[in-house]
Structure formats: structure tokens, C-alpha cells
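1st attempt posting a full record on here, be nice pls
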Amino acid sequence: MIPWLDEEQVFFPDISTALPEPDGLLAAGGNLLPSTLINAYSQGIFPWYSDPDPVLWWSPNPRCLLKPEEVHISKSMKKLLKKNTYSITWDTAFEDVIRACGQPRDYSDDTWITQEMICAYCQLHDLGVAHSIEVWSGKSLVGGLYGIAIGSVFFGESMFSTQANTSKIAFIQLCLQLQQSGFHFIDCQVESEHLLSLGAYTVDREVFKAQLKQAINNPIETPPWQTAMTPQI
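the predicted structure (as C-alpha cells):
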């Protein structure tokens, strides 16, 4: 059994109490107010559910992380980036990015990025906590990602592409910009072959908790979204 969170006063259990199966399920209920979401991410917890289910909160073990300075850029990606085929921006089309991330995928018609989630993360964006990277072909948005930044951690949420490799371009650019600003790591949540190929790795929950606590309490002086985007490889 998992605890049911109060709708008004949300107190999360310690992530060490998350279920091993399904991996990381911690609690249900609560709300998606900005304060609740910021509190959750600061403890290594994130919401993930589909309509008509209640809000479900997760903290999987092991945890998938990536250090920005260790991102792997293949030779083919370096060639593509050098062509400057696409332009890249920060925070210019956040809602468009999250809505694109919520579109059904080839392998499924379901989405966890519900209208409720879109509204919640747009509120975080308005508060300067949620951020997006956009990849443009001319005036068309063809790729991007969004996530949450707290302290010196970027919590990656989702990415999309309508042209080959554009989500990967967004992710690589994210890493390069975070590296310049001194971010400790990107929380990729759950490992995948795609993330591992980009340089991600996994750590045990207790290691993650210790690293998260340190990074959350180490704010960045000049975050990348406060400066001009400088595409590079």
C-alpha cells in the first residue's frame, strides 16, 4: 500500500519508502500546485500518471543521472551541429514545447502530459522554475525539451522531435549550456538505452539523495536562460 496525500496539505513520505514494484511508486493524491511540485522535485519525487487516474508520485531506484560535462556527442551529431541547420532558443515557446511532448507517440495513444499537467508546469514556467529549449527550422518548431531547475539540478521531463535528431540537438545544447553555468547534474529519472548512449549513468537511491541535497542547496549565480543562447559543440 502507498499513502494517500491530503489535497490541501501535502507531506511526502521519504523516498526510501517507495515501492520496488512498480519501481518507485511512492504516493497518490495531493495536488499540482507550484509549491507542491517544487517541494517534490527537491526531494527527488515527480508526478507521473494518466487520466483518469489520480496524481501518482514516483522516485525510482536506481536513479538515472547525467553530468553535463560528460554528455557524449557522436561524430555524426558534431557534423550536424556544425551545419547550423537549426536555430536554438531558451524559453521562447514553453507551452508549445510541452504540448508537443504530450502528443501521442508512434507506439502509444496514451499520454501522461495531461491538460492538468500542462497548466501546472506552465505556472512553474511563469515563476521561472520550469524551462524549455526549442529547436527551430525557420519559423517551425521541430524539436525541444522541458524540465525543472532547482539549485544546480536540472530535472529533465520530456522531449520531442518532428525531424530526425532534433530532440537530441536540444538535449546536447542543454548539456553544453548547463555545463557553462556550473550545474551539477541532470536528473533523467529512469534509464533508457537512448540516455545511456548520451552519457547517462545510474546511481543507488541513497547516493542520489546525498547528491541531490548538496546540489539543491547550491544555487547557480547566472543560469543559462538569463543569458543569450550560444550554440556550440
